[in-house]
Design brief:
With 245 residues, this protein is mainly α. The chain has helices spanning 5-8, 24-28, 39-51, 61-75, 98-101, 106-119, 121-131, 140-157, 161-167, 170-191, 199-212, 214-225. It contains 12 helices and no strands. The longest helix is centred in the last third of the chain and has 22 residues, at 170-191. The two termini are 19 Å apart.
């Protein structure tokens, strides 16, 4: 991203902060607002938000490889799919051209999805299978794009800053929150027997949790996805944090 000239073109148009929906103290008292530590993390935030403005280009090889990797990882197909066609419906795009759906969060949504299906593949495949259940199906990639938009809002509201500071990476924090939202989605979808008719309600709940109670969601997801230590094993070691590479 740092070497990509089109990314830098959006630096002047990105919205770095949005406190309009924050809690009372940070909304009205600027000195109470959380901060990213250091110029490097601030630059990462800016680049991530710029990536959300970049659109999928049909003649860009990197963009196409990212898209194809997501398709192959979810469907199990060994061959790259055609760039346009009804087959994109299989992974939850709404039309024959994925670029149309990606406009909401640009390449950032593609990066989040790519990370999820490659670094959290077991969880991703379980959720993809859930999305294909007859009568309880939902559009996987459309949901993923919505989750990226929630991640962007958490970043602008500062509720993701503590995690980014802790990890030393805004990008890793974004990936972790995106994965945590997916984990919570699966828990609620299965536990409450939801269908697509209730997705709007669930998305509103997840948005509230992801933007205003971000640390709580991350902690819950990490606890739920961290393997228990083996019987008789000593303390420490073995924990795998959601979103880690």
């Amino acid at each position: 991203l740092e070497r990509d000239a089109p990314v830098a073109e959006h630096m002047d148009s990105i919205e770095r902060e949005d406190w309009s929906n924050a809690s009372c103290l940070p909304r009205y008292l600027p000195f109470m607002r959380p901060k990213l530590k250091g110029e490097r993390l601030q630059t990462q935030r800016d680049l991530a938000l710029c990536a959300a403005k970049l659109q999928l280009l049909p003649d860009d090889g990197t963009h196409t490889r990212m898209l194809n990797t997501i398709f192959r990882a979810l469907t199990g197909n060994s061959r790259d799919p055609p760039r346009f066609g009804a087959h994109w419906d299989l992974i939850g795009f709404q039309g024959s051209d994925p670029a149309t759906d990606l406009r909401g969060a640009g390449l950032l949504s593609l990066l989040n999805a790519l990370h999820f299906v490659t670094r959290r593949k077991e969880l991703a495949l379980k959720l993809y299978a859930l999305s294909r259940q007859e009568g309880r199906d939902f559009p996987f990639m459309t949901v993923s794009i919505n989750f990226t938009q929630i991640c962007m809002q958490a970043l602008r509201m500062g509720t993701l800053h503590a995690r980014a500071n802790e990890k030393g990476s805004v990008v890793d924090a974004l990936h972790e929150l995106h994965g945590a939202l997916w984990w919570k989605m699966g828990e609620e979808w299965q536990g409450r027997g939801l269908t697509i008719a209730k997705f709007g309600i669930l998305l509103k709940e997840l948005s509230e949790l992801g933007t205003k109670r971000t640390p709580k969601l991350l902690a819950q997801a990490q606890a739920a996805t961290t393997p228990a230590p083996a019987a008789g094993a000593g303390g420490g070691g073995g924990s795998i944090e959601l979103g880690s590479v």
